[in-house]
Every structure is written in structure tokens, then in C-alpha cells.
Amino acid sequence: MRVLGLMSGTSADGVDAVLASFSGPLGRPRWTILNQISIAYSSRLRQALVDVGQGMKLSSLEWLELSESITEVHVAAAKECDPHSLAELIGCHGQTVSHRPPMNSSRGASWQIVQAPLLAQMVECPVVYDFRSLDLALGGQGAPLVPKADEALLGRVNSWRAILNLGGISNLTLIPPSFGPDRYANVLGWDCGPANSLLDLAVHKITKGKSSFDLDGSMASKGQADETVIQRWLQESFFQKQPPKSTGREEFGIIDLERRYKEMSHLSIVDSLATISAFSAAVIAQELDNLYVKKLVRPSSLLIAGGGSRNCTIFAELRRRCRGIHVMPIDQCGLPSKARESMAFALLAWWHFMNHPGNSPDITGAIRSTVLGVKVIPG
Q1: Of 74, 242, 303, 345, which one is least surrounded by beta carbons within 10 A?
Q2: Displacement of CA 369 from its chain's centroid (Å)
Q3: pLDDT tens digits for range 208-261
């Protein structure tokens, strides 16, 4: 079956699209990428998404217009990726504008905006969307949803391996080995903390809006990270919390950045960026160390995906801090970094069509597995 996957992540930089074919066993399908493209949001639209993620109030009409603008970019991405209308189904994540994990006895909620019926009508193809809601209704975090797809797409090898997504938020997938005492273990995954969210906001602030990210980590590479500050930050409650856990810009956004800037008032601009960049890597190293302490699991390799995979400073920090682990781009395993998440939601849409569960209680904390997503058909 040919499925088009559409994904826009926490960084809110645009829409990644992939056209793929799936066949064979549901848990380990044969797959082929037929095409992939990315379309950037306009600077105005991206800024609007960052602002609403930081709590900016909108009127009902402004929310409507924002959702229309997002949908139009998704339509453009779908048509450019699949100009000959080969897709039989579309899996669309939408744009996250708010994420509230369940805490104590309170219910979790997550909002990804896109006008799926309009998308289906304009592309003339059925659309599966709203993948997170049912997991949340079943008591789960609603995130991350990609780890189970990672296992299906990449399979198991002879040792544990980890996949790290460096988007606005970092998250880990841990895939068990194919043989040995852990061969019956389930795939693991959770959100770790900020990857690009704080760094992008810092660059935007420093450059007065002229740049929205640190290209290749070049600015941070000129500075020296303050290890004392980093070690203090690593003791914060979120980083001590055990999985399942998820987070977003609500926790690691502009207010959080301003607090951290006060703690870095003694540092130069480039030293501050170096500290934030190294912190993103230090969070991952600590999570992997905690995993070993709690479960005696230590992956042999760490595959890096997401926009942050092109940040040479963070990449170098990961190699330095994750001792004994082979750190490399996920592309070396045959899955293009830019296509990974859009492939995951294409697969989740196929699983929806095949009535196959898309979540995992071991990852999200939901009370049971279930088929994810809502399907709309063009009129």
C-alpha cells in the first residue's frame, strides 16, 4: 500500500513529507521510500506558532486562520511529494500547539492543529490524523509515538540500540536485541528534555530575530560550556523523573530560557550557547546512564535523527559524553533522518487501515494498546 506521511515537529520549521510503500508483516513490514520533500513555514507563520506555544492569546478567528495556514502548507507538501496522486492514504500528524502530560490524577491532553477534512478534500485522498488523543484518553502520555514505528522500520540487531530524535524536544527509542536474554523485551521510549527548543529561542533572542537557529552549531562551537551550570540543571525534577514521560515548549520554552539566562549572566554570548548546546547532550547521557542503573541496559549504538543531527556541536558533545556508545547518523542505517518521523506517521496510518495497534503501554503508560488515529474521507 502506498501511504503519504506528513509531519511537523515541535521546532515548527515546516512540513516533512514522505511517500512510501508498505507490505508484508505488520510488525516488520517491507518498506520503500518513493519520494520525500520538505517545505518550510514562512517566517511569519513559524513565529506565530512559536508565540502560541508560549501562551500568546488568539481570537477564535485567528485560531481558524492559523489552522487554515497550516493546512495549506500540508496540502502543498502532499502535492509536491506525490505529484501523480499515487498515495492511497495519508497519515498526518498536524502541528502541536499545546501538550499537557498527565500528572498525578489529572488527565493529559495534546492538541495538534490541522483541518484534516480540508486536507483530504484538497488532495483527494483519505487522511488519518489525531493520533495522540486515544492514547491520552487511556491514561497515556500521548507521546512519544515513534518508538514502536522505529522498531518496525529498522528491526532488531544483535544488541540494544538507541535512536535519538533531536527536534525541538529530544526523545529516545530503545530497541531490544534479536537474541539473548533480552530478546523478549519490548521497545522502550520517552521524551528526554530540550534539544533545539531552548537553543533556537536563544539564537532568535541574540540575533534580534535575524536567525532562528544556530547553523551547524557554529556559534556555540566558539564558546566554552559551563559544566557547573549544566550539572546543576541536570538535577531538576523533570530530569530525575522516570519514564513514561513527555514534555514540550510549555515546559522548555521562553520562560524557562529566561530563567536559565539569569543563571548564565556571568557567561559571554557564545559561552551561553555552548552551555545550552552541551546541556542538550548531557541530558541524553544522563538518561542513558539512568537506564543502565535501573534496567542494566546499555545500547551499543546511538542513531541520531532530527534537525539537531546537523548541529556539529551537539553531535560532538554526544560523542564525548556517551562513552562506550557508537554515535552516528541514522542515515547510515538506511532511514533518512529527514524522513524518519514522516515515515513513522505514514506507518501509523497504514496500521490504522489494517486495524493494528499503534501505541505501547510500555512507552506511553496507557492502560492498553489500541489502534490510533481518526480517518476522514473526501466527499
Answers
A1: 242
A2: 21
A3: 888 889 999 999 999 999 999 999 999 999 999 999 999 998 999 999 999 999
271-327 pLDDT per residue, tens:
999 999 999 999 999 999 999 999 999 999 999 999 889 999 999 999 999 999 999
Are 233 and 329 part of one and the same domain? yes
**pLDDT reading at 125 higher than 90:** yes
Residue 108 CA to chain centroid, in angstroms?
18
Q: Please, which residues have CB within 8 angstroms of residue 249's CB and are 6 or more apart in sequence? A: 10, 50, 53, 54, 99, 168, 169, 197
What distance in Å separates the CA atoms of residue 232 and residue 212, rounded to the nearest whole number?
27
Helix, strand, coil % (nearest 5) of the chain? 40, 20, 35
Number of domains into which the chain is organized: 2
187 and 128 share a domain? no
Examine the domain organization and report whether 213 and 151 are in the same domain: yes
Q: If you write DSSP's letter for every residue of 280-293 in order, what string do you get?
A: HHHHHHHHHHHHHH
- Which residue range is the domain that position 203 belongs to? 146-333
List Cβ neighbours of 59 (8 Å cut-off, separation of 6 or more).
none
Same domain, yes or no: 292 and 345: no
For residues 232 and 254, membership in a common domain is answered with yes
